[in-house]
Amino acid sequence: MDWWNFLTFIRQNLIYIHTGILFYFRIKLQNKTYKLKLPELTEPSALIPNDTLGLLSLSNIHIQENSKLTLLYSSSGGNFSFHKLTAALQHPGSTLILVRHVQKSKEGDQKYIFGGFANKPWADDGKFSDDDRSYIFSVFPKFQNFFFRPRPNETFEGNFTYFNTDKLRNQNVGVGKVS
Hints:
Elements: H1 3-13, H2 17-29, E1 40-41, H3 50-59, H4 61-64, E2 68-69, H5 82-88, E3 95-103, E4 110-118, E5 128-130, E6 135-140, E7 144-146, E8 159-164, E9 172-177
Parallel strand pairs: 1-2
Antiparallel strand pairs: 3-4, 4-6, 5-8, 6-7, 8-9
C-alpha cells in the first residue's frame, strides 16, 4: 500500500479519530468527562441500531449536530414507491439514505447495507448538484465512508446529488462523484 492509499484508508475508516483522541486526553489529563449524545430516532429502525448510529454520528458532523433523526420514508415490507420516496426527498434539509440489498445465490444470501448523505436539499431539476459534503458509505458487511478527495495535482470536480422525477428524462435519485 502506498502513502496515498494509506491516507485515504485512514480518512475513510477513521474520519473522526482526532475527536476520540481529544476525548481521551480530556478524560485522562484534565479529569473532564464527555458523553457522545446520539441523535434520537423518531421511529425505530431495522437498519440503524445504536452501534451503527454511533459510527454514523462519529463519521458525520451533521448527524452529530442533530438531536433527532426523522424517518421520512421506508419501504420495509416490500412496499417500494418511487413517488413516495421523491415526495419525502423534497423536505428542506440534509438527507441520510439507507438501503438494504440482499443478493441471492446458491451459496446463500449475501446482505448489504449502504447509503448516501446529501448535505443540501434535493433539487428536482435533472441536473447534478455539486456538493463537497455529500458522500456514500457502506454499513454492512463493513462500515466504510467513501469521500471524494482529489489527489495532488488533480482538479476537484466534486461530489453530487442528482434528483429527477420527470418521466421523459429517466427518473433517478443519486449521490456520488462527478467524473
